[in-house]
Amino acid sequence: MNGKLNDILKQLLERCAVSMDASVCGAAACEVPSGFFSDAGKILKAAGFRLAAEWASDETLFGRGFGVYAAYIEGRDHIVIKSLLPPDDPAFPTLTRHFPAAYRMERQIASLMGLKPDGHPDPRPWIRHEDWPEGVFPLRKSFDGTKPLGRVEGTYRWVSAEGEGVFEIPVGPVHAGIIEPGHFRFQAVGEDIINLEEKLGYVHKGIEKRFEALGWEEAARLAARVSGDSTVAHAIAFCMAVEAASGCVPPPRAGHLRAIMLERERITNHLGDIGAICNDIAFTFLHCQFATLRERVLRTNRKVFGHRLMMDGIALGGVAADLSDDAFVAIIDDLHVLSIEFERLVRIYEDNPSVEDRIYGAGVLEPDAAKALGVVGFTARASGQRLDARIENPFPPYDKFPPTVPALSSGDVHARAWVRVEEVRESSRLIRELIREMPEGSVRAGWSGPLSGLSGFSVVEGWRGEIIYWVQCAPGGGINRCMVRDPSTMNWVALEQAVKGNIVPDFPLCNKSFNQSYSGHDL
Amino acid sequence: MLKILHQIFRTGIVTEPLDPAEEAKVTLAGAGLEKAVRKRFRRSAAIRLVDAGSCNGCELEISATCNPVYDAERFGISFTASPRFADILLVTGPVSRNMEVPLRRTYDAMPSPKLVVAVGDCGYNGGVFGSSYASLGGVGSVLSVDAYIHGCPPTPSDILNGLLRVIEG
Ligand code: SF4
After folding, report:
1. Is the CB of B153 under 6 A from ligand 1?
2. What are the pLDDT digits (tens) for A247-298?
3. What dotted CATH number matches A207-522?
4. Interface test mutation site (partner B, options A178, A296, A303, A311, max chain B beta carbons within 10 A)
5. Is A93 helix (H, G, I), strand (E, B) or coil?
6. Is B151 left (phi over 0), alpha (psi -120 to 50) or beta?
7. Does residue B28 sit in helix, strand or coil?
8. Nearest CA-CA distance, residue A284 and chain B, Å
9. How many folded domains does chain B comprise?
C-alpha cells in the first residue's frame, strides 16, 4: 500500500471511525459506521478520488443485514468503503451530494434491494418499471427470483418542460434500426433539444439475481453474455474478481492470450462503430468499407478462437484453449492487411469535408461535465479524462506491456471517433508485441472456489471503458452477490448532457458516437 | 474523391455466395404461411427487428447480414423501421418482462399475413438467462413463433439461411 493511500486511511480513521476489512480481495477496503458513509466519500473526493461504483448486498446468510458499498478510484489507488445496515428499515446517507454519478446507482439500489438513500433528490425508481408490484425487491434473499412478477397499474413521472413552442418527442423503446431498446424523451423548441430524459431498464433480465443461482463455470458463461459486444471484457472481469478472491493466479501465457482477445474485441467494435458513425452522416461508402474490414477480423476470430465474437474463450483460471503457432501467424497476417486497409480508410475519412462538417462540434461533452459525472472509457478520453484501467489497474500482461492512451479534449463526435481510430492502431501494435513476447507454458491454472464470505473486486478496460465486478462468495460455496458495473452505467447520463442544444436530427449521430450498452446497463 | 474511386476499384465486389447451413440450426414451428403468400414474400420480405431482451450479441450478427459480404438485400430481405411495412417479425433475446408489452404491440401493429422468427438460443428457451422474475424465457412464451434460428449468436449465414428457409418453405 503506498503513502497516499495510507494518508487517506489515516484521515478516514480520524474522522469516520473506520476499520479495515480484509474480506475484500483486489482492492483496499474498509468499513465505516453507516452514518459516515457519505462523509468518507467527501474525504475521498477532496483527495481527488472519483466514485466508480456503488452497490448493495443482502448479507442475511452471514447473519447480518445489508451491506452498502462504494468503490473509489484515483490513479492506481482503489478503495472500497462498506457500511452495514440493519435488516429492518435499512437506510444510508446519499453520495449524490458529492458525486452526481451516484444518482442512478442509488435509485437502482433503492429499486432492486430496497435500501433507502437518505437525502437523494429523486425518489423515482430506476430499472424497476412503473408496472412492478409494490414492495418487491428482487436482489433480496427473501425474494424468490424464479417466479414471475405480477403487473400493476402505474405511471412514470417524466420531467416536463413548459413554455411557448416547447414540445415533446417520445422515442422508443423499439427503435428504428437493429439496436437495443430504450426510451428517450426530448423536449425541443423548433429543432433544438432543450432537454433529453432517458428511461432504461427494458432489457432487464435479472442477470445479477441469476448469478446467485449458478455454479462458477455457468456464471462465467453468464458474465460473457452481459453485453455481447463486450463478451471478452466482461468474462475477464468476472474471472479476475473470482480469481482474486480465491488466490488463483492465471499462468503468464493465459494473460497474453486474454489480452490478445481483449484487444481484438476493441478493434472489431471500433471498426464497426466508426463505420456506423459514417453511416449516420450518410457516408455509406465508408460504412460498407469499415463493415467489410470488421467482417475480416471476425472471420479470423472464428478460425483462430472458434467463435466470431470469441465467446467463452475466457475461463476461470486462464483461457479455454491454447493457440498454435499457425494461429499466431494467421493473426499477424490479418493485422498486416487490416493496418494497410485501415489507414487508407482513415485518410478518406480525414479528407472529407462533409464528414468534417457533421462531426466537429456535434454532441459536445465538456471535460468538466465528463469529470463531474464520472464518465469512463473512450467517452472520457475524448473529453480530456485520460482514464484507462489498463494503466490504472495494470493487470497482467498490461503491467509489462502498457498501452499508449490517446486523449482529446473537444468532447465532440469527432473526438470520440478519433480516440477510437488511435486505439485501433495501438491495439494492433499491442497484439503484435504480445505475440512476439508470448511466454511458454500452460494456459489455465488449477482453480477452486473462494472461501465463504470473501469477495473479489476487479477492474478491466473493455473497448467501451472500465468494467467493474465484485463477487462475494456465499456460505457453503456459491455466489452470494455478483455486482456488475458496465461502463454504460456511468456514461448514459452523459449523453443527456451532450445532446443539449443540438438539433433533434443529430441525436442518432450523437447517440452512436457514445454507443452505450443497454443490456450491460439494464442487467 | 479520387481516393474514394480508387478504393472502390481496389475493393471490387466482396459479396460471397451464401454458405449452405446445416439443417439442425433451424427449427420450423407453427403453421407458417400458405405457399401462395410465401411466394409473394420471396424476393421481397421486409423485416422488423425487436430486441426483446438480448445481450446484443445477436444484434451484431443480424447487422452483419447487411454488410457487403453477406448483403441480405440481394435476397430481397430488407429491414424496415416501421412495423406497418413489415412481413416478418424477427425477435432476439429472452423476452424480458419489461419488453413483453412493447413486443406484443409491435406484433399487433404489423399487417397480416406475418411471420415470427426467433433468433438465438435465448429466443428459443431463454438461454443462459432462463425464466425468472425478469425474463419470460423464449419468444414462444409470448408469441406464436414460425421458426427458430439456433446459435449463440447464430452466424450471419445461419441467420440468412434460416430466413430463406422460412420464406421459401
Ligand atoms: S443467443 Fe447468445 S448472443 Fe443471442 S442474445 Fe442470447 S446470449 Fe446473446
Report:
1. yes
2. 889 999 999 999 999 999 999 999 999 999 999 888 899 999 999 999 999 9
3. 1.10.645.10
4. A178
5. strand
6. left
7. strand
8. 11
9. 1
Residue with cell 424523451: A185
Asked whether B152 lines ligand 1 (CB < 6 A), one says: yes
Are A285 and B4 within 8 A, CB to CB? yes
A292 contact B CB<8A = yes
Backbone angles phi, psi at A15, to 5 degrees: -105, -20
Q: Cα(A148)–Cα(A145) distance, rounded to whole angstroms?
A: 8
Mutate which: A205, A265, A279, vs B, most B CBs within 10 A: A205
Candidate of B50, B58, B96, B158 to mutate for ligand 1, largest count of ligand atoms within 8 Å of Cβ:
B58
- Cα angle value A391/A397/A402 (rounded, 5°): 35
Maximum separation of any 2 CA atoms in chain A, in Å: 71
Does B93 lie at the interface with A, CB-CB under 8 angstroms?
Answer: yes
Q: Which domain holds residue B147?
A: 44-168
- All three cell numbers of B153: 449468436
End-to-end CA, chain A? 34
Q: What is the pTM of this model?
A: 0.94
B153 alpha carbon – ligand 1 mean position (Å): 5
Which one of A149, A176, A348 has the shortest CB-CB distance to B133?
A: A149
**Nearest C-alpha neighbor of A223 from the set A212, A233, A232, A234:** A234
A2-39 per-position pLDDT tens digit: 667 788 888 887 777 777 787 888 888 888 888 889 98
Cβ-Cβ contacts under 8 Å for B28 (sequence gap 6 or more): B146, B147, B165, B166
Question: Is B76 within the bounds of a domain?
Answer: yes
Asked if A27 and A20 count as a contact pair (C-beta separation under 8 A), the reply is no
More confident site: A359 or A431: A431
- Fold exhibited by the domain A3-118: Beta Polymerase; domain 2 (3.30.460)
B31 three-state secondary structure: coil
Torsion sign, CA atoms A227, A230, A233, A239: positive
Instruction: Please write the tens of the pLDDT for every residue from A166-212.
Output: 888 888 899 888 889 999 988 888 888 888 999 999 999 999 999 99
Helix, strand, or coil (residue A319): strand
Domain ranges of chain A: 3-118, 166-199, 207-522
Q: Is residue B5 a part of any domain in this protein? A: no
> What is the rounded CA–CA span in Å between residue A54 and residue A251?
31
CATH number, domain of B125, equals: 3.40.50.12280
Closest partner residue to A519 among B4, B56, B133, by Cβ?
Answer: B56
Does residue B153 lie within any of the structural domains? yes
Q: Closest Cα to atom 5, ligand 1: which residue?
A: B54
Q: Is A47 on the interface with B (CB under 8 A)?
A: no
